[in-house]
Amino acid sequence: MLGHRALASAGLLFDAEKEYAEAVLFAALASGAAAPGHAEVGVPAPAWLNGLAEAASELRRHILDLLRAGELAQAEALFASMEDVYAALVTVDFPDAVTGGLRRTTDALRAVLERTRSDLTTTVLQARLQARIEQSLGVSEVT
């Protein structure tokens, strides 16, 4: 890229690195594995941080799929991972010019986190209600 500085500084490389980091980090988070660092992924820290925020946001879809499948415990574990990512990202206090707009990406993650919390809470409460109804009816499963 040394001969193509204009192309490298146009943001295309950053976007590609961020998307790659997002894919690698999503795979790790979704499987419950430890997230690899930016050096392991092979991207600069700003691209890794933004990729991490977007990977955590993408967990929402996976959590919703788990909720539909009745896998509440796994959905709650992934939600805890989302919360951990958000908690870590809000501590990054550098100008957006250094972090590649991380503040905006973190704010978007916050909104996704709150919608996911709402969906997860509703599903957990519905499951508890269903269990109590089944218990009071003496039924093992409502059909």
Jot down its keywords.
mainly alpha
What does the model show?
This protein has 143 residues and is mostly helical. 77% of the residues lie in helices and 0% in strands. It has 7 helices and no strands.
List the helices and strands and how they pair.
Layout: H1 5-8, H2 12-31, H3 38-41, H4 45-68, H5 72-89, H6 96-99, H7 102-137
Helix pairs in contact: 2-4, 4-5, 4-7, 5-7
- Largest beta-sheet details: none
Number of helices: 7
Structural class from helices and strands?
Answer: mainly alpha
- Based on the structure, what is the oligomeric state of the protein chains? single chain
Q: How would you sum up the global shape?
A: elongated
> What is the strand content?
under 5%
What's this, in brief?
77% of the residues lie in helices and 0% in strands. The protein is mainly α.
